[in-house]
Design brief:
Largest sheet: none
Distance between the termini: 55 Å
Number of strands: 0
Low-confidence stretches: 1-8
Structural class: mainly alpha
Order of helices and strands: HHHHHHHHHHHH
Mean pLDDT: 84
Strand content: under 5%
Number of helices: 12
């Protein structure tokens, strides 16, 4: 029987794995993302304000979930597929495997983040604004007032967080799994515990190095009319640092 080449199958498998991971991440993680964004923009002081059991708080926690349900599942799947394809292309460059993984992760993150920036911006606006608008209504409203600039506001910070953050995530995941396999411990990389440790470490690394940029991005998007921030990441980071120092850059 004729079989498909492994080189063609790998991106497809990566896409399907990413698709399932995206669905789970949205359903479980969106409430925490809402708390993060509201804390980053100074609208709540702590998570406890939204974690008190009530229907109103539950509705607030899932506000803006439409955009990630439309995009995150597909983008996560596409990101894994593009990552596999990029990694294949980098194999001939002769660089250490960890660097190949980092650059492949960064490239796939940037390619996926770029076209979906408008919907990512709408999610933040739905989470932070007192106005209740659908995704289509927000896109129409933004375009009517400021055109494509409003749709792609904060593009640089979005690409850094989505691209470089993804690179750190994939590289850390790879390094931790290699370490687990090189040590004589119960945390083998193919065990559930080993995968959990590797994924947890990767998630932390993916956010620690890019989190200040994400804080700047949330504030830039919330200020979509440009009353406080010009839209570039560096001036926003400087202004936020002056507001509250390093703790302000890591709020949320």
């Amino acid at each position: 029987m004729e079989t498909r080449p492994a080189t063609l199958a790998l991106p497809v498998v990566g896409y399907l794995a990413g698709l399932n991971a995206g669905i789970a991440r949205v359903l479980v993680g969106h409430p925490f993302n809402t708390i993060k964004v509201l804390t980053q923009t100074g609208q709540i002081a702590s998570a406890r304000e939204l974690l008190r059991p009530s229907l109103g708080n539950a509705a607030k926690l899932y506000r803006g979930i439409g955009s990630p349900l439309l995009t995150t599942c597909a983008t996560t799947g596409a990101s894994f597929g593009l990552y596999e394809a990029s990694l294949m292309g980098l194999q001939s460059w002769g660089m250490p495997l960890a660097l190949q993984v980092f650059f492949a992760g960064t490239a796939s993150g940037v390619v996926v983040a770029l076209p979906f920036t408008p919907l990512a911006n709408v999610r933040v606006l739905q989470q932070t604004s007192a106005e209740r608008r659908s995704i289509a209504a927000w896109l129409q409203h933004l375009f009517r007032h400021r055109g494509l600039r409003a749709w792609f506001r904060g593009l640089g910070s979005n690409l850094v967080q989505g691209g470089v953050g993804r690179g750190f995530y994939m590289a850390t995941f790879h390094v931790v799994k290699e370490f687990e396999d090189s040590t004589d411990s119960a945390l083998a990389s193919n065990s559930v515990a080993g995968k959990l440790v590797a994924a947890s470490s990767a998630g932390i690394a993916g956010w620690v190095f890019t989190y200040p940029v994400d804080v700047a991005r949330s504030n830039i998007i919330r200020d979509w009319e440009g009353k406080k921030f010009c839209g570039a990441a560096l001036p926003a980071l400087t202004a936020l640092y002056r507001e509250g120092g390093l703790s302000r850059l890591y709020s949320g």
